[in-house]
C-alpha cells in the first residue's frame, strides 16, 4: 500500500486538510493506496496555479509546434509504461487486463497523438464581409482554465480524451478524477510532468464530491468538462451560472439495440453481449435494452442468455477473465436493486441475478443477467443501471420500433442489426441519439465526435468538435481608410 499525493503547480501535495480516503481493488477489497481527499483550498490553489501559467505566458508563449511535441511525448511515455499502467488501471478499477491494455492505455496514447496534430492547425479565417475599407480576420484562442471531471468507469481513457484537446488548444487544466479510481489520473499527471509541460499547465486534485463542487463553482474556472450521471450534470449546470462557464457534459445513457428479422443472429448475439458486458456493463453506451423482431425473439433471448451464463468472471489480472468486478460494493447494491425491481415488476429472469458463489463472492462481482418478458415502462428498461443487466423485448414492425427506442430521456447511442441496407439507413435517421452503430458494437476514435442528445448531455468530445469546445473565436477588425 502506498500514500499518494496530487499535483498543484510543480508540487506534489498531500492536501491542505490532511484528509484521506482509501483506493481499493474491487476484486479483493485490498487497499491499494491512501489518497488525499482534496477540498476547496486545494482546488483554489490548483486554479491559481493554472491561472498563473496562463498569465505569465509560461504556456501561451509556447509555440504550436512545441505544444505538439509535448503531447506526442506524453503518448510515447504512455506506450513505454503501458504494461505497468494497464495493471494499475485493472487493479484500481477492476477491468480485465486485456481491456485495460487494448482500450484504456492504447486509447489514451492515441488521443494525445491525434490532438498533437491539431496544435499546428488551429487556424482562423478571413471572412468575405461587406464593410468597405476594412479587413477582418479571426483567431482561435484558448478558453482559459478548464476544470475536467472524470468518472470511474474508464479513468485513464476519459482523462486523456479531455486533457489532450484542452492542452492542445493552449488551455490549462485542473483535473478532478472520481474518488473511486484516482490512481491512473495521478500517473498521467506524472507523465505530463516528465514530458516537460510547464508548471501549472496540468494540475490534478483528488477528492470526493466536495472537490468537484468547488471546481465547478470556482470563478477562476472558465470551462467545465464533465462525464458522469445526468443528475450530477444538472447540478453542474446550476452551479456554473455564477460566471457563465462554458460546459460540455457527457451524461447518462440507456442504449437500445434493434435486431430485425433479417439480422445475422450469430453476429447480433455476440456483438450485443460484448457491448452489454464490456467493463461489467459499466459503459454509458453499453447495449442494455434490446428490441428484437418477434419472429426471432425466443431464439435471440435463448442464445443471449446461454452466452451470458458462460462469460468467465474473475479478477482483472487473471488472463482468463472475460468480465471483472463492479467498481465497488455500493454500486453492486445499486445494480442488485434494479434486478430486484425487474422481478417485482413482472419481468422473467432468464439467467444471472446475483453474486457468484465460491471465492469470487468476496469481491464486487455480479453475474451477467438477462431479463425477458419485460415492458417498456419497467425500470430495468428505462433507467441506466450501469451494470451487466440486459433486457430483451419483442417488436412487431419496423414502423413502431424507432418510436419505442426514442421514448427515453436519454439519447447517447443505439445499435441496429440488419442485413437490409435501406432498413439500416432508415432507422439510423429515425433514432434520436448522438451515435448510431450498424452491425457493430461501440467504438470510439479520437477523430470522431462523441456525445449525446436530450439528457445524455451537451457538446461533443473528440474530433474537430472537441477543438471547438476548447477554443474561443476572436474577431479582429482593421480599418483601411487612409491607411
Full CATH superfamily name of the largest domain: Aldehyde Dehydrogenase, Chain A, domain 1
Quote the beta fraction: 15-25%
Shape: globular
Category from helices, strands and their pairing: alpha/beta
- What is the number of independent domains? 2
Give the mean pLDDT: 96
The CATH class name of the largest domain reads Alpha Beta
Euclidean distance between termini CA atoms: 70 Å
Number of separate strands: 22
**CA gyration radius, whole angstroms:** 23 Å
CATH architecture of the largest domain: 3-Layer(aba) Sandwich
The number of helical elements comes to: 15
Classify the fold: give the CATH topology of the largest domain: Aldehyde Dehydrogenase, Chain A, domain 1
Given as residue ranges, the uncertain stretches (5+ residues, pLDDT < 50) are none
Largest sheet: 7 strands, mixed
| Helix content range | 25-40%
Strand order of the largest sheet: 14-15-16-13-12-18-19
Amino acid at each position: 500500500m502506498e500514500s499518494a499525493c496530487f499535483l498543484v503547480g510543480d508540487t506534489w501535495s498531500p492536501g491542505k486538510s490532511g484528509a484521506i480516503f482509501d483506493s481499493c481493488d474491487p476484486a479483493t477489497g485490498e487497499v491499494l493506496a491512501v489518497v488525499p481527499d482534496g477540498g476547496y483550498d486545494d482546488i483554489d490553489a490548483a486554479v491559481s496555479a493554472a491561472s498563473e501559467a496562463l498569465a505569465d505566458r509560461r504556456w501561451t508563449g509556447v509555440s504550436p509546434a512545441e505544444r505538439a511535441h509535448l503531447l506526442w511525448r506524453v503518448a510515447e511515455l504512455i506506450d513505454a509504461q503501458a504494461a505497468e499502467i494497464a495493471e494499475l488501471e485493472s487493479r484500481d478499477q477492476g477491468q480485465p487486463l486485456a481491456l485495460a491494455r487494448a482500450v484504456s492505455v492504447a486509447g489514451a496514447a492515441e488521443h494525445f497523438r491525434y490532438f498533437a496534430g491539431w496544435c499546428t492547425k488551429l487556424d482562423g479565417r478571413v471572412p468575405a464581409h461587406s464593410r468597405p475599407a476594412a479587413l477582418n480576420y479571426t483567431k482561435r484562442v484558448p478558453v482559459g482554465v478548464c476544470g475536467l471531471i472524470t468518472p470511474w468507469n474508464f479513468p485513464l481513457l476519459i482523462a486523456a480524451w479531455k486533457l489532450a484537446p484542452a492542452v492542445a488548444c493552449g488551455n490549462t487544466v485542473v483535473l478532478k478524477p472520481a474518488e473511486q479510481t484516482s490512481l491512473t489520473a495521478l500517473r498521467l499527471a506524472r507523465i505530463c510532468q516528465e514530458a516537460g509541460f510547464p508548471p501549472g499547465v496540468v494540475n490534478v486534485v483528488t477528492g470526493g464530491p466536495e472537490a468537484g463542487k468547488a471546481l465547478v463553482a470556482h470563478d477562476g474556472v472558465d470551462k467545465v468538462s464533465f462525464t458522469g450521471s445526468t443528475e450530477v450534470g444538472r447540478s453542474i449546470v446550476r452551479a456554473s451560472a455564477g460566471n457563465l462557464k462554458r460546459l460540455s457534459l457527457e451524461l447518462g445513457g440507456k442504449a437500445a439495440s434493434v435486431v430485425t428479422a433479417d439480422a445475422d443472429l450469430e453476429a447480433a448475439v455476440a456483438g450485443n453481449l460484448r457491448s452489454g458486458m464490456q467493463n461489467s456493463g459499466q459503459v454509458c453506451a453499453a447495449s442494455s435494452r434490446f428490441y428484437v423482431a418477434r419472429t426471432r425473439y425466443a431464439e435471440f433471448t435463448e442464445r443471449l442468455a446461454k452466452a451470458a451464463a458462460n462469460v468467465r468472471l474473475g479478477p482483472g489480472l487473471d488472463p482468463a477473465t472475460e468480465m471483472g468486478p463492479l467498481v465497488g460494493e455500493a454500486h453492486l447494491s445499486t445494480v442488485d436493486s434494479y434486478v430486484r425491481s425487474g422481478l417485482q415488476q413482472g419481468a422473467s429472469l432468464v439467467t444471472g441475478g446475483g453474486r457468484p458463489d465460491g471465492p469470487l463472492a468476496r469481491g464486487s462481482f455480479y453475474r451477467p443477467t438477462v431479463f425477458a418478458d419485460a415492458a417498456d415502462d419497467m425500470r430495468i428498461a428505462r433507467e441506466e443501471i450501469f451494470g451487466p443487466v440486459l433486457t430483451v423485448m419483442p417488436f412487431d414492425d419496423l414502423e413502431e420500433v424507432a418510436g419505442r427506442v426514442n421514448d427515453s430521456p436519454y439519447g447517447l447511442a443505439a445499435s441496429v442489426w440488419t442485413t437490409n441496407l435501406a432498413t439500416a439507413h432508415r432507422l439510423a435517421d429515425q433514432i434520436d441519439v448522438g451515435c448510431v452503430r450498424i452491425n457493430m458494437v461501440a467504438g470510439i476514435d479520437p477523430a470522431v465526435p462523441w456525445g449525446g442528445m436530450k439528457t445524455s448531455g451537451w457538446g461533443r468530445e473528440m474530433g474537430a468538435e472537441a477543438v471547438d469546445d476548447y477554443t474561443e473565436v476572436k474577431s479582429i477588425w482593421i480599418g483601411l481608410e487612409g491607411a
